[in-house]
Amino acid sequence: xxxxKGVEWTVHCCTLLAALPEGTNMPAARLxxxxxxxxxxxxxxxxxxxxxxxxxxxxxxRGGFRLARPAPExxxxxxxxxxxGREPAFTCTEIRRRGPxxxxxxxxxxxxCGIHALMDSADEAWRSxxxxxxIGDLALYVAATASPKAIGRAAAWFQQISVRESxxx
Amino acid sequence: xxxxKGVEWTVHCCTLLAALPEGTNMPAARLxxxxxxxxxxxxxxxxxxxxxxxxxxxxxxRGGFRLARPAPExxxxxxxxxxxGREPAFTCTEIRRRGPxxxxxxxxxxxxCGIHALMDSADEAWRSxxxxxxIGDLALYVAATASPKAIGRAAAWFQQISVRESxxx
DNA sequence: GTCCCTATACTCGGATAGCAAGTGTCCGAGTATAGGCGG
DNA sequence: CCGCCTATACTCGGACACTTGCTATCCGAGTATAGGGAC
Lengths: 169, 169
Prior knowledge:
Two copies of one chain form a homodimer.
Chain A: H1 5-19, H2 28-35, H3 39-51, E1 55-58, E2 64-67, H4 76-84, H5 114-131, H6 135-145, H7 148-168
Antiparallel strand pairs in A: 1-2
Helix pairs in contact in A: 1-3, 1-4, 1-6, 2-3
Chain A binds a DNA duplex through residues 2, 4-6, 27-29, 38, 40-41, 43-44, 46-47, 50, 57-65, 168-169.
């Protein structure tokens, strides 16, 4: 059971977007550059987030991605489900109905499969934990715990891409 | 993020083995027959459980698998980890250290990555839920909730394989 | 000088190859058993 | 009749193809901008 790499990338991207000023957007190429990940593949995942209603996207020059809602209203679970799928990891194939002891009428299996119920319960606990934290929480955590040097470098890079844009105009 | 089918199969197998009389074992072929799953592939997974110390195996005629410990002392988490691996689904690649804002000394990243911490927390909640239920609990649940007809069929099949064995002798 | 038009360059969006891991299968090594043989 | 030996058949154990889904990439459609020209 392995989670897609895209989850880590997109959650980091959302956290960065949450730190941007209101109404500001950032193209996928810049997001990829900041996180040192392959740009085309990251774009694919960001599109999935746009489809899920987590990001809004603008085309053309000065275009890019931005959070569709305030960061505190976006849970990490939403991002994970947008990338990794909404269906639970465990899929019950109703083994108990098969084989020599199975084959009975559906009415004989009214109680849920015990293993299925347990797996669903564990899955629910997992999702509950991810739903309790928002992108806004993560952004605050980063702002509070990141070293001043790292924040300084991020700010410097952010200014650099601003002058890089104004140079073309 | 999809869990291996082998998890469902082996948990069902362990539950069945828990229902067997003390000291009784069952070969992989019978377990596969009862659950209507491919025997060779199930064998592969049962071997993983034997390696993990969950099952004991006997070779030769009258051989087979049996629980290595009392069913209440075997948690579902053990079975899941034996099949699906012990490492967490999410792997942090320390994205924050890469890119234009990264590249600082390791001492600048003493606080753990927020996303990493959250994912570990969710993973812990998931594992905790699976560790709270034992194979013995599942066996009791099945015995309490399965329909009398299903239990009757299982008993009939169990008797049938017994006479099938005695027929050869 | 102001407005409009056109060409441009940059953005997202979906469709397309490559690869790793899970899925499914097979055959060989080892062992308790069952029958036959000798005492 | 009893004990031993041998051959057997059945079991687990690890090594070998195949398929699905994640990984990585590219090119095309759409749009706001910037410059030039006309009024």
